[in-house]
Design brief:
With 209 residues, the protein is of the alpha/beta class. It has seven helices and eight strands; from the N terminus they run H-E-E-E-H-E-H-E-H-E-E-H-H-E-H. The chain has an eight-stranded mixed beta sheet with strand order 3-2-1-4-5-7-6-8, sandwiched between helices.
């Protein structure tokens, strides 16, 4: 399943009613999300029906603290620190029983993990932000699929206790992926990588929802 199919499956399975998407670009995913109420955010105005035409940092700074969503999809700037902030801020606006989905956790190959976009496929260092969740005692899983992986972060009861750290993860690419890794080959994720990403397959998805 690709990201859209997975998100729609989670929505249907949990009877979710509200959705926020961070990083909408042209709306290819957003337009196909089936839910009663949905909103989206992007700094680019390529999509004509943006709810928030601004950065996610600005959106969250303006958002009333009592505004909540059942499911939030993070696919903005593929940089560890930006993704980490989006996760922390999203937890503060997640309904009880909600889920945050983070795209691009499983890199295509080593050339795709640069901190800035250099052309081609760019997954950035999103995986570092997910590995760092181990230090926050948050329940999360990384779903292995053929669409660059999707981390699923479950509702955290005490989001205000979480701190945003500017310290970058020291976990290197080859700690998670071996030298010959391609994103569609499960066997090339290292033993440590499977552990710190809390890796699951599509067959195990129902067990964590």
């Amino acid at each position: 399943m690709d990201r859209t199919e997975i998100i729609n499956y989670i929505i249907q399975k949990n009877n979710y009613k509200s959705y926020l998407e961070i990083g909408t670009q042209y709306g290819w995913n957003y337009d196909n999300i089936i839910i009663d109420n949905k909103e989206c955010c992007d700094v680019d105005d390529s999509y004509h029906e943006l709810t928030y035409h601004m950065s996610s940092d600005e959106m969250f700074s303006r958002m009333p603290i009592d505004k909540k969503y059942d499911i939030i999809f993070i696919d903005g700037l593929h940089n560890e620190l930006f993704v980490h902030r989006d996760i922390i801020n999203s937890l503060k606006h997640l309904n009880v029983g909600g889920i945050i989905c983070v795209h691009d956790v499983i890199a295509n190959d080593y050339s795709a993990v640069s901190e800035v976009f250099n052309g081609g496929t760019w997954n950035g260092d999103v995986y570092k932000a997910i590995c760092n969740l181990s230090n926050l005692n948050i329940e999360y899983y990384t779903l292995f699929n053929d669409d660059y992986g999707l981390a699923l972060i479950k509702y955290y009861e005490y989001p205000y206790e979480l701190q945003i750290s500017d310290i970058r993860a020291k976990i290197k690419y080859n700690y998670i992926f071996d030298d010959n890794f391609m994103s569609n080959d499960l066997n090339h994720i290292t033993k440590q990588g499977k552990y710190v990403l809390h890796l699951i397959t599509e067959d195990e998805l129902d067990s964590i929802l």
